[in-house]
């Protein structure tokens, strides 16, 4: 038996590893790779693994650890930060989508309990896929990104009551509404009791283990807490997975949660990967081929329903239609939690095998569609809603700005806010354009002239006075919107100076072709600052550093983009770095050189640098006498290469050229 399980695990890793490498290369989430690997190696694919009972047992461990880590991430601060999105758009999205799906399945003559759980399962979206895509695109801080995170967080929070409902919906003996509500109340009381009871005990246990033990003891204690909480949950009529989720939520409030996440994460990733592979194994390809059109039709229906109601949910909380549409497209897939809940529902007898297969196929197909929908969401929203939104803005009560020769700042994040404060101090007229209502309110309270609107709309830019502006500075994360704004700005004001911040250097030429005058790649300006400080630490003069920075910028950041600098540029760089330089050193009381003669220090023979002069008591001593006594407050003027000067300064400070504590050398 053990030999059989080990062989299956080896096959799992052999197949899933290369598939996930491919998915990583094409920037798709690993969850999708695991599902594809499961389909390939399972009993309905290549039949490399025919008996998946042992794999399913390991997969259940993965679900437990996955829910535990999810519980660890339920921090109160994170919930409060996204409270508006969670309660507003999140509640509306889950509620409306669940009701719509419930209504559809009731009309299709499904039982009430099946329709309810199907509505809740379909309403959930994939946190793993959406978060990876918006993180890779640096859109976490955009309005659409924050809305997606808030709605996903609400969905994750709702997993707890859904898991409570599952066994109750599967109970055939519960017939009346009163009985059902009574069972729900009992389950909720059990959850609250476990949470508060363990909350009193667990932090003290962890603190005690941390004081007397090491990291391994802490990890073992956490595993024990997970298992014990799960066992208590099962004894009280809940599930092991629910207990793990509660344990994670309790430990998230302890001071050890970050270390625990680091320790548990490898285990979670391994076992949860087995879960998603096992889900792929369960997919019966013959059901897909025999019901191909039905599967495609259901997938399209699910994507449309989810997209429409997520869009409507955002629009109802006063989010602009274009952004609402972007969020709707990004949340239109079925999530990984849906797969977990579907498997639990199957075990509870809520679905038969064929129904489960259809749900599984639709879930996987919608997840495969998700990256494409997320990628095209912004561009498609601009094409569909630019005219509609323009009319809405024109009819707004806001007056067009009357500024002239001013700066238009697009985006009031950290960079936009800093620029606004500098312009305010310099008394340079400007106006801020922002789509995030929270940022608009903050800017107005700070006395900043701010307009609420979408910069991808021509009328919004006109309202900001772009026709009469001298410059527009675009500091937003969404590249598609940035490029659209550049093109519109150039169209509205051909003479305006357009300055753009972008993430990567490979976007520089595209934005310049779109009409930008200056494109500043964020990550490589940081790199320039780092190398400037490194060169400064090696005593390269400021004018040489500035020349090199200018050289890199003139070359279009070629060095950082992996492109070759031209021969002339390389010669200049080499000349700058090999030049002979001068440097000064002020002797302090704790310097090794203090109290010694110039001859004792003997810099020329030890480092190769030349002592041009020693300034002592405001009197310069050119080519100083070897017997000159060096005192605190004296200054050495040195000449040499970068390496020679670096070694000389360390010699004067420590008595040797390697740095560190003072030498015993006399």
From TrEMBL:
Residues 404-521 form the RCK N-terminal domain. Keywords: Membrane, Transmembrane, Transmembrane helix, Transport. One of its GO terms (biological process) is potassium ion transport. It is found in: Membrane. It is a multi-pass membrane protein. InterPro entries: Cation/H_exchanger_TM, Na+/solute_symporter_sf, NAD(P)-bd_dom_sf, RCK_C, RCK_C_sf, RCK_N. GO terms for molecular function: antiporter activity; monoatomic cation transmembrane transporter activity. One of its GO terms (cellular component) is membrane. The chain crosses the membrane at residues 32-49, 61-80, 86-105, 117-135, 147-168, 180-198, 218-246, 267-285, 291-316, 323-346, 358-382. Gene3D superfamilies: 1.20.1530.20, NAD(P)-binding Rossmann-like Domain (3.40.50.720), Regulator of K+ conductance, C-terminal domain (3.30.70.1450). PROSITE patterns: RCK_C, RCK_N. Residues 570-654 form the RCK C-terminal domain. It holds the Pfam family TrkA_N. Belongs to the monovalent cation:proton antiporter 2 (CPA2) transporter (TC 2.A.37) family. PANTHER family: SODIUM/HYDROGEN EXCHANGER FAMILY/TRKA DOMAIN PROTEIN, SODIUM_GLUTAMATE SYMPORTER. This is RCK N-terminal domain-containing protein. It comes from marine metagenome.
């Amino acid at each position: 038996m053990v030999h059989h399980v080990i062989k299956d695990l080896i096959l799992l890793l052999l197949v899933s590893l290369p598939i996930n490498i491919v998915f990583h290369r094409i920037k798709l989430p690993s969850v999708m790779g695991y599902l594809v690997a499961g389909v390939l190696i399972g009993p309905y694919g290549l039949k490399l693994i025919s008996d998946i009972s042992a794999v399913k047992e390991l997969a259940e461990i993965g679900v437990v650890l996955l829910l535990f880590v999810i519980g660890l991430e339920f921090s109160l601060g994170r919930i409060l930060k996204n409270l508006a999105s969670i309660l507003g758009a999140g509640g509306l999205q889950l509620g409306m989508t669940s009701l719509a799906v419930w209504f559809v399945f009731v009309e299709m003559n499904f039982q009430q309990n099946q329709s309810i759980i199907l509505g809740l399962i379909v309403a959930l979206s994939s946190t793993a896929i959406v978060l990876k895509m918006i993180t890779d695109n640096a859109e976490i801080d955009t309005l659409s990104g924050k809305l997606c995170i808030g709605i996903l967080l609400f969905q994750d929070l709702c997993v707890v009551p859904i898991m409570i409902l599952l066994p109750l919906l599967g109970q055939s003996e519960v017939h009346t509404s009163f009985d059902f509500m009574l069972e729900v109340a009992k389950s909720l009381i059990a959850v609250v009791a476990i949470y508060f009871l363990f909350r009193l005990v667990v932090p003290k246990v962890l603190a005690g283990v941390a004081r007397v033990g090491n990291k391994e003891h802490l990890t073992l204690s956490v595993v024990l807490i997970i298992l014990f909480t799960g066992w208590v949950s099962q004894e009280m009529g809940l599930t092991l997975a629910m207990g793990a989720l509660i344990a994670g939520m309790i430990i998230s409030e302890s001071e050890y949660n970050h270390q625990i996440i680091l320790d548990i994460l490898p285990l979670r990733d391994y076992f949860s990967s087995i879960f998603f592979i096992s889900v792929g194994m369960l997919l019966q390809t013959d059901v897909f081929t025999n019901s191909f059109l039905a599967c495609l039709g259901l997938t399209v229906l699910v994507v449309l329903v989810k997209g429409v109601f997520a869009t409507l949910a955002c629009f109802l909380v006063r989010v602009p239609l274009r952004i609402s549409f972007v969020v709707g497209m990004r949340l239109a897939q079925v999530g990984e939690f849906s797969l977990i809940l579907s498997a639990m529902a199957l075990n509870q007898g809520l679905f038969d095998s064929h129904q489960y297969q259809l749900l599984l196929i639709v879930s996987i197909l919608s997840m495969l569609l998700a990256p494409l929908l997320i990628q095209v969401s912004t561009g498609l929203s601009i094409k569909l809603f630019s005219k509609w939104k323009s009319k809405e803005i024109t009819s707004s009560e806001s007056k067009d700005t009357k500024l002239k020769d001013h700066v238009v700042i697009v985006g009031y994040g950290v960079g936009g806010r800093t620029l606004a404060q500098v312009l305010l101090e310099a008394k340079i007229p400007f106006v801020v354009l922002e789509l995030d209502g929270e940022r608009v309110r903050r800017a107005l309270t700070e006395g900043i002239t701010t307009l609420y609107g979408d910069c991808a709309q021509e009328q919004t830019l006109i309202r900001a006075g772009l026709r009469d502006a001298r410059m527009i500075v675009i500091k937003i994360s969404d590249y598609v919107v940035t490029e659209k704004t550049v093109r519109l700005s150039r169209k509205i004001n051909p003479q305006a100076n357009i300055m753009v911040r972008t993430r990567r250097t490979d976007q520089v030429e595209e934005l310049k072709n779109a009409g930008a005058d200056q494109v500043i790649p964020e990550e490589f300006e940081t790199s320039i600052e780092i190398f400037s400080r490194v060169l400064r630490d090696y005593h390269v003069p400021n004018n040489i550093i500035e020349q090199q920075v200018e050289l890199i910028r003139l070359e279009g950041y070629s060095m950082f983009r992996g492109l070759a600098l031209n021969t002339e540029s390389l010669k200049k760089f080499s000349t700058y770095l090999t030049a002979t330089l001068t440097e000064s050193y002020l002797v302090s009381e704790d310097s090794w050189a203090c109290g010694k003669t110039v001859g004792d220090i003997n810099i020329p023979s030890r480092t190769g640098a030349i002592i041009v002069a020693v300034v002592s008591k405001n009197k310069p001593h050119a080519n100083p006498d070897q017997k000159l006594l060096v005192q605190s407050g004296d200054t050495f003027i040195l000449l040499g290469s970068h390496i020679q000067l670096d070694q000389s300064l360390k010699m004067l400070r420590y008595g040797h050229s390697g740095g560190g504590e003072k030498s015993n050398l006399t």
